[in-house]
């Protein structure tokens, strides 16, 4: 990697006779300080990317060049923008030639794409405003924006040492592809061209029957597009994949083919990578192209590994980890391709304290509502029998049956049924949940009036890769409401939950199980703000 941010990926191959196969070359990538891909050079084919303040991609362009060399010396050529995509929102993407695609979702799942073009935007295309006109009293200098964008493209070509011989084309800044007239000569020319286009279009189709190119997605268990059907229910595209996302089989007609393939993510055909919102994924290498910014959450897993090397059962649909405190209050979201909600064992909404707690392992993926329900059942059985009970949760979310111990012990023989239940479905233990039935807990010579503290035996026998859980109690003395001297103290017993790993307890003993239950429910109901 060079100081200017260029990363070289050598794709040359050495043949068996020792000679280098020059038919394949090298790929160069430019990244910024936030690990966002800015440009890619594949043997002179340059693609450029722009992002908004939240890190979401807003524009993608791909260039093509025709270059002439005489006796090995460059003598001239031309450079053009072959393709571009403008990501207006998750619901609308505009492309070259005045084409656009509307997306319709059911929740977070894309179910329909409607393809159209600005020239036939309904019976009244004047609804599209001309770029540069005043909108709500705001005037945007699109020519300056275009010039700045064009300069970025030229700079990237220079970084890659690829000749740039393009003629600046400000059609989009001048209103090409738009229709509303602001009185300028450019807008008048654009409107005249559009009138001509509409006249021709009306000779061949009904202008009111727009967006009849509608395509419906039929996905597999990973959300990957398997079959695409049209408005008449006919299959227009069929795709099958190898486990890590490369296309294995593709059948399609020439009407339209979706770029949203594996995991329903956009496939950039110019680079062969999928865009996941936070990082780019190369299915040929089965690796992410940049590191995980929150790798300390899973230090045993490589930052570049895709879905823990289990792409058949796991998926990274959003690539976002949302962090919450013990009260279920939202702290922040990190782009790290894990798509999980994490509870941090702190009570404040402090990002710095949260980061420190995460680095110390004082956090865990928020349990499912089913896990919390099983915790309540474990409490009930413990109070009914007086014996310790427990269950185990698998890495894939499997919940084992509740097992019963003897007194305050659940030994290996008791745990066998719980472990077998996970193994039989191909899952592995992620963490242990068990109760402490006795209201007086002995730790060495100390006699404590509560028993939600993990014992040293618990700590030494921590299982899985996530904090283990003690379902215990705490005796709490309430203020006396009588005025006489003496008398019995007013005492209540509260259910308290404690998390621990091999370093010991991770949260305070003041965390009520009822508070934990409300926090989990609140976190599962939480929805990110839409843009």
TrEMBL record:
Keywords: Repeat. Residues 214-312 form the Teneurin-like YD-shell domain. Gene3D superfamilies: RHS repeat-associated core (2.180.10.10). This is RHS repeat-associated core domain-containing protein. The lineage of its organism: Bacteria, Pseudomonadati, Bacteroidota, Bacteroidia, Bacteroidales.
């Amino acid at each position: 990697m060079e100081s200017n941010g260029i990363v070289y990926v050598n794709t040359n191959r050495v043949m068996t006779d020792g000679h280098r196969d020059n038919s394949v070359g090298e790929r160069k990538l430019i990244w910024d300080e936030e690990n966002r891909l800015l440009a890619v050079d594949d043997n002179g084919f340059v693609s450029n990317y722009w992002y908004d303040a939240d890190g979401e991609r807003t524009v993608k362009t791909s260039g093509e060049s025709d270059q002439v060399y005489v006796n090995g010396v460059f003598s001239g050529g031309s450079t053009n923008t072959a393709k571009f995509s403008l990501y207006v929102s998750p619901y609308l993407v505009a492309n070259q030639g005045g084409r656009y695609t509307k997306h319709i979702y059911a929740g977070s799942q894309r179910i329909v794409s409607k393809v159209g073009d600005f020239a036939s935007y309904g019976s009244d295309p004047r609804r599209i405003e001309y770029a540069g006109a005043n909108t709500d009293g705001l005037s945007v200098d699109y020519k300056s924006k275009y010039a700045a964008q064009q300069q970025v493209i030229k700079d990237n070509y220079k970084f890659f040492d690829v000749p740039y011989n393009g003629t600046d084309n400000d059609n989009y800044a001048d209103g090409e592809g738009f229709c509303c007239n602001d009185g300028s000569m450019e807008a008048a020319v654009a409107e005249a061209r559009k009138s001509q286009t509409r006249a021709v279009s009306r000779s061949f189709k009904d202008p009111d029957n727009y967006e009849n190119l509608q395509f419906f997605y039929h996905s597999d268990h990973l959300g990957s597009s398997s079959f695409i059907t049209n408005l008449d229910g006919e299959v227009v595209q069929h795709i099958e994949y190898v486990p890590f996302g490369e296309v294995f089989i593709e059948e399609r007609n020439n009407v339209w083919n979706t770029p949203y393939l594996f995991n329903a993510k956009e496939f950039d055909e110019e680079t062969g990578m999928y865009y996941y919102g936070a990082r780019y994924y190369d299915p040929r290498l089965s690796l992410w192209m940049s590191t995980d910014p929150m790798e300390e959450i899973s230090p045993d897993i490589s930052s570049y590994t895709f879905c823990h090397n289990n792409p058949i059962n796991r998926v990274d649909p959003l690539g976002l980890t949302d962090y919450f405190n013990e009260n279920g209050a939202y702290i922040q979201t990190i782009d790290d391709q894990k798509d999980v909600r994490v509870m941090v064992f702190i009570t404040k909404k402090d990002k710095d304290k949260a980061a420190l707690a995460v680095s110390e392992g004082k956090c865990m993926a928020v349990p499912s509502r089913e896990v919390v329900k099983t915790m309540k059942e474990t409490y009930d059985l413990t109070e009914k029998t007086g014996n310790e009970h427990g269950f185990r949760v698998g890495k894939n979310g499997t919940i084992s049956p509740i097992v019963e111990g003897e007194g305050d012990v659940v030994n290996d023989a008791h745990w066998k049924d719980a472990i077998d239940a996970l193994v039989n479905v191909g899952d592995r233990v992620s963490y242990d949940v068990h109760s402490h039935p006795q209201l007086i807990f002995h730790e060495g010579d100390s006699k404590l009036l509560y028993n939600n503290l993990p014992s040293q035996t618990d700590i030494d026998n921590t299982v899985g890769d996530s904090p283990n859980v003690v379902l215990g109690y705490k005796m709490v003395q309430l203020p006396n409401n009588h005025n006489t001297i003496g008398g019995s103290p007013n005492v209540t017993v509260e259910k308290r939950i404690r998390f621990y790993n091999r370093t010991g307890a991770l949260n305070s003993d003041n965390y009520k199980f009822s508070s934990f239950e409300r926090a989990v429910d609140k976190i599962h109901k939480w929805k990110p703000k839409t843009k």
